[in-house]
Amino acid sequence: MKALFVNGSPRKNWNTAKLLESAMKGASESGAETELIHLYDYKYKGCVSCFACKLKNKNFDGICVYRDELRPVLEKAFNSDIIIMGSPIYFSFVTGMMRSFIERLLFPVMTYSTDSNGQLIKNVDKKICTGSIYTMNASENIAAKIGYNELLAANDAAFKRVLGYNESLCVYETLQFSDYSRYECNMFDGNQRLERNKTIFPEDLRKAYEFGQRLVKKASE
Questions:
Q1: What digits encode the pLDDT tens for the residues 177-218?
Q2: CA 50 to chain centre
Q3: Half-sphere exposure of residue 193, counting CA atoms within 13 Å on the CB side?
Q4: How far, in Å, CA of 18 to CA of 184, rounded?
């Protein structure tokens, strides 16, 4: 069983990456073959609306035909049993790199047609167990008030609709700086964030580990 972990953060050693590494450990110890990819290592675009994936009478494998550095990543993702993606939340959504990855992964699988039961007709009958890890400055209460739950649920629903399964893990009030005194950031209590990182973030890492385990179990069903 193959599990691909996709880091949509520009940082390779901070909150999102650490959570993905913990989830990857959980998946690996549950028997999955794992790999971690950092999207910021690649140069690529989002969907360019060529619609090659929507042509009639095509011989198409479900992988975006646009040739750039993301193509090999999409091939790995498409040939995985599990994809776990991690991204910080920027202006209410995932990073631009992650958004572009999502567009290029999901859009080619679907068509604009439905069957007699109203179900989406797909270019390929592909099922992948997917998971999303979201990190953010906001507290759980603030995230709910400003609508993050609905926005991120829509993202999760797209994965479930196109690839068959998705669940998510939200991690709140993450550590943004190692030294808050250097930055204009009086919206945050730096000492509180540092203390939270010591006391609460280890629990978040445990949840991520179990998240990885759980998705391996789900993919095995």
A1: 888 889 888 888 888 999 999 999 999 999 999 999 999 999
A2: 24
A3: 21
A4: 25
